[in-house]
Amino acid sequence: MRIPVIWSLVLIITATGGLYYINKVKLAMDKRTSWQGVAKKYSEEMGKEGDFYHQKVILPNLLRLLGLNPRTRLLDLACGEGILARSLPPIGEYLGLDAAFSLIDEARKKDEGKNHFYGVADICKELPIRKSGFDRAVMVLSLQNLRQPFKAIRNAARQLKNGGKLVLVINHPSFRIPQNSGWGVDRVKNVQYRKIESYMSWKEILIESNPFNRGQNIRTYSYHYPLSVYSEMIADNGFLIERIEEWVSPKKSEGVMAKVEDRARAEFPLFMAMVAKKV
């Protein structure tokens, strides 16, 4: 696949417009992983506070795991339209990076946070950051959209100070594999179960962008790795996994299948979070 290349001024700018730094880089836009085309609709769907799962599951748990304080310097890799930044308490500094400049534009429009900075950068390539030594790095529901997640984790290691922590949130790799997993119902036992068609094999999975672009044929890709491969990527980049959490859906069903469906939701997590310390 031919990857279009553009010259871009990578502007790290506060939400209020203050200049942090500027760097000229050659930015290669990979259409397989870029969310450039879906940015506007995605931002509309997310709104100011995020969707149901961000509000009820992801953000509350993520903020607990990050353990932020007023001096924390936080690096948000593949920050999207800045949903995490808008949920933060006051901290020392926030820097969000994403390859899709339209997502960065949406993030800046929505964010009124103090000491919040944004920039356009491919997190799988050398980052144009002059001031490293971050206390925390985070990737929220983005690692599974990268063709080269190892390189993104390596960049996090390079930017973190010794003892700094990386927090990853991903769609659960054991139970949520696009086009290779789904629900089934055992009518005899009256239970709902999760069916998995494959797990150990690496997969590149085409995702139609609806509902974010109704009527438009814009596509993105998801990449599946088994949990053991994620563990290897983390360890090989000098991290020690301190904690793994699995988060279920708090939604409740109605109707005759409510009890069965609610039990299944409580048994099969939607998301996995990993906390890794740079050692």
Give a written overview of the molecule:
The protein is an alpha/beta fold. It has a single domain, classed as Rossmann fold (3-Layer(aba) Sandwich). Helix content is 23%, strand content 34%. The strands form 3 sheets. The chain has a 9-stranded mixed beta sheet with strand order 2-1-5-4-3-6-7-13-12, with helices on both faces. The longest helix is centred in the first third of the chain and has 15 residues, at 52-66. It starts with a strand and ends with a strand. Mean pLDDT is 86; it is low at 1-11 and 13-29.
Strand neighbour order, sheet with most strands: 2-1-5-4-3-6-7-13-12
Oligomeric description of these chains: single chain
> Whole-Å distance between the termini?
38 Å
The average pLDDT is 86
- In what range is the share of β-strand residues? 25-35%
| Structural class by sheet pairing and helices | alpha/beta
Alpha carbon gyration radius: 19 Å
Highest CATH level, the class: Alpha Beta
Estimate nothing, just give the exact number of structural domains.
Answer: 1
